[in-house]
Description:
Elements: H1 12-38, E1 41-44, E2 47-62, E3 65-68, E4 76-79, E5 86-87, E6 92-96, H2 99-127, H3 134-162, E7 165-167, E8 172-177, E9 193-196, E10 201-208, H4 209-212, E11 220-225, E12 228-236, E13 239-246, E14 252-259, E15 271-288, E16 293-295, E17 298-305, E18 308-319, E19 323-328, E20 335-338
Antiparallel strand pairs: 1-20, 2-10, 2-15, 3-9, 4-6, 5-8, 6-7, 8-9, 10-14, 11-12, 11-15, 13-14, 15-19, 16-17, 17-18, 18-19
Helix pairs in contact: 2-3
Amino acid sequence: xxxxxxxxxxxxxxxxxxxxxxxxxxxFGWQYRQRAKNVLKTYTVEPTSLxxxxxxxxxxxxxxxxxxxxQTGGQLTWVGVKKGDRVKxxxxxxxxxxxxxxxxxxxxxxxxxxxxxxxxxTKRDTYKDVVLTDIIQRIKDKSQFTLDRxxxxxxxxxxxxxxxxxxxxxxxxxxEASDEYPGVNISLTxxxxxxxxxxxxxxxxxxxxxxxxxxxxxLPATITLDAFPDEPMTSQVGSIEFTSVETTSGGxxxxxxxxxxxxxxxxxxxxxxxxxxxxxxxNVLVVPVAAVTTSGEEKQVxxxxxxxxxxxxxxxxxxxxxxxxxxxxxxxxxxxxxxx
Length: 340
């Protein structure tokens, strides 16, 4: 079935009317757009609080963290922890075979006793009722050196035996336990036990070198973690590290630490952002930066007064990314024209 165009649509008067309607519609659309362009965008000056802030990204770190490694090699004979366990301060973590170390200590003690006996015998038989000559003094000094070395050997052997047991100097959580089962021969570099104190968590952010001069301890800050975007934390600048770090883009930054409230929900290395308030002024008049033009050393805005636009010179104070503080030139209620 073919669709038939009505006869009146084919008449000349209808076609002319349709063209006329299209022209009128286009004309009205153009006029509407022109009127929209001519509508002024304005900003009414009112007292408000102005904050100058520095933002930075970072993550949760810990202040108290230790890494335990054995000072001597040997066979792992006992392990008292696994990853995720909590340990107390001075709690033993693991130990290696002490039988060999005990025998070495006994051997050093026997060597010391023999050296001591020889020293006392030589001293009694050689130096009794004899005026010391230079040669005799040298012999005596050599015997004393040998004895002193024997004492050091005993002390070193005793220290090695003590190092056979790893002890945690802090209370915390085991975050790494490279060897959890006894019976293996340990490696001095690969065998590691890491303890982190969850009560010393803090937020650490990298602040760019250009901004670090504006930051000092005690400045208020707000921390927002990616895991809890609706639960910002109030904090303050705790400390600023003296040495710099290199950013991912190759720039220079400094680690700034912020104390955080302790919570079982927070975990090490959680990412987030911090907003540091470097300056704050309540109840001041402000205008958007976009409304201000500069002429030489003067700053000006365009005021809307009685339907007319007039230039007004202003003096500014605190400046943020979005607003200027007005110190002179404007009053509350003034209407400032914004650029289109």
